[in-house]
Amino acid sequence: MKTSLFVFSALMIGMLTLAACAPAATPMPEPTAMPEPTAVPTEAPMAKDIVDTAVADGRFTTLAAALQAAGLVDALKGEGPFTVFAPTDDAFAKLPAGTLDSLLLPENKQALTDILLYHVAEGKAMAADVVGLPAVATLLGKDVAIKQDMGNVYANDAQIIITDIETSNGVIHVIDSVLLPPADEAAMDEKVDIVDTAVADGRFTTLAAALQAAGLVETLKGEGPFTVFAPTDDAFAALPAGTLDSLLLPENKQQLTDILLYHVVSGKVMASDVVNLTSAPTVLGKDVSIKVQDGKVYLNDTVQVIITDIETSNGVIHVIDAVLLPPQ
After folding, report:
1. For residues 49 and 77, is the Cβ–Cβ distance under 8 A?
2. Which of 27, 36, 101, 256, CA to CA, is 20 to 30 A from 323?
């Protein structure tokens, strides 16, 4: 019995000794987190050219149609670079009624082309460059004047409202009015007077009829020079109902004459001179007040000058959007 206990004790001691001498168990490694997949860089979308940029924008549908009618789409999709002063649809809508429809006719393609080329300059001129220039040379060969006033920048009298829309072949600056090129010197050599210029324009049929009724046609075909603030047909149409019909009656000839003479200033006063005046004496002998507000010129506070410097052989025409009525 003693022998058995001794053997059992020896076995237990041996097992404990082996356990104490055995190497410690190696801990299991923690699972390694999988790295996030690396994003594959994507290429920036290619910039569209000037025409496609304008079409995609949605605010230049009229400009796009005009470029199509003038056959200038491929030119402005070319390599360039170009700088385009782009009138919005609202800018085209400010033109006198019928003007755009007339320009889009096939027989007026050259006139439309000239106007559009007057909005395009060669090279890429960013806003920071434009503001430092007195003028920009256009593809028409006639300069657009650049000026700053009250923190705003103007191309001629059109305000630049958005700048630096970059495209694959140049840059677009957005303007709030259509730029109309100055009268061609060659046309001036033809000696087209104020009356004939107004008649040929097509927007002044009522004014022409009124001049005829008042007997003033020969006067405004005279040597001059004269400055005429010319109301459009729409301006006459805005008079109270029956007013124009009444003025054209023979018994009201003197009243009509007075109104028309209130639109005429002696001498040739260009827009650059008008904006520096507070008033202008008319041939009627009564002054028209002048003010500049938000880059626009107004006569008698409310009548806006919408187109300037239509030069003729015997003076200049500035277009206005309402009829001037002389003070009583």
Report:
1. yes
2. 101
Structure tokens at 252: 């009201």
Q: For each of the chain's 328 residues, which pLDDT tens digit applies?
A: 444 444 344 444 444 444 444 444 455 455 544 445 545 455 445 679 999 999 999 999 999 999 999 999 999 999 999 999 999 999 999 887 778 888 888 888 998 999 999 999 999 999 999 988 999 999 999 999 999 887 889 999 899 999 999 999 999 999 999 999 886 444 444 558 999 888 888 889 999 999 999 999 999 999 889 999 999 999 999 999 999 999 999 999 999 999 999 999 999 999 989 989 999 999 999 999 999 988 889 999 999 998 888 889 999 999 999 999 999 8
Cα–Cα distance for residue pair 236/99, rounded to 1 Å: 16
